[in-house]
Specification:
Layout (H helix, E strand, L loop, with lengths): L3 H24 L14 H10 L10 H27 L5 H21 L4
Helix pairs in contact: 3-4
């Protein structure tokens, strides 16, 4: 035999579960308010999954930064070599040395600055 207390608890549980079912149905993305839920549709989700990982690639202008560093390094140290040749009265001895030193130094700087991103 069911006591009065048990029937009250059972009725309360029925009301509570009915309220939860109504709220879930109203808020569910599969319910009638799907267009207003603010969530993406399954088609957009499928497109994101098919597209694979997104690679941002190098930052814009990185190639010009590398080229500029290489040209500036060789140019600067080449001009230093021309200046040393002119002041010391030598022929073109220090110009090629300065050019090579500048290119090696700028290549090291490019590898250090634009190398593998961590």
């Amino acid at each position: 035999m069911v006591s009065r207390r048990q029937s009250e608890v059972g009725a309360a549980l029925d009301r509570s579960s009915a309220r939860i079912r109504r709220n879930v149905a109203a808020d569910s993305t599969n319910g009638r308010n799907r267009g207003h839920s603010g969530k993406k549709g399954s088609g957009e989700k499928d497109e994101r999954l098919r597209s694979g990982p997104v690679d941002a690639g190098p930052p814009p202008g990185e190639a010009w930064g590398i080229i500029g560093t290489l040209v500036a390094g060789g140019g600067f140290w080449g001009l230093v070599g021309i200046g040393v040749d002119h002041l010391a009265g030598f022929g073109p001895v220090f110009f090629p040395i300065g050019l090579v030193v500048g290119m090696v130094a700028s290549l090291y700087l490019v590898i250090y600055r634009f190398g593998a991103r961590r």
